[in-house]
Amino acid sequence: MYLRPVNDxxxxxxxxxxxxxxxxxxxxxxxxxxxxxxxxxxxxPEMQAARGEGTHxxxxxxxxxxxxxxxxxxxxxxxxxxxxxxxxxxxxxxxDTGHETQVGDHVAVIYAGRRTYAENSTEWVRSILLxxxxxxxxxxxxxxYWRSSRRP
Length: 152
What we know:
The protein has a domain of 66 residues. By secondary structure, it is an alpha+beta fold. The chain has a 5-stranded antiparallel sheet. Helix content is 43%, strand content 27%. Helix 2 runs antiparallel to helix 3.
């Protein structure tokens, strides 16, 4: 009579479902890859705006939504030379005009990556912090899962 170790799945179990642990690893890697892709996709235009690169112009505020101390704006962007016009352009940046920005105001912005950013934008800092935070969380889950899978 042949005895198998307790932790060794039988050939029938392997044929039924395979290794569910590899599915979790693949899922975590895909999640991390999507997070990295999204962050770095947004980070390029944010860094460009922070360096003052991009198309300078004005954003005419058409909508303003505020909550939790931040306001988000959208409107029509017109470049400084008047050659570029873009409707329904959004910004997550806090636009500091010296007074509370309202609908109808014209605000100096930089257009980069289909979004507008305030002059000297620090939006990139928030993206980096979000990426680091989520990376630490995913790493913690991976370490916890790896350690728990090694226990007898």
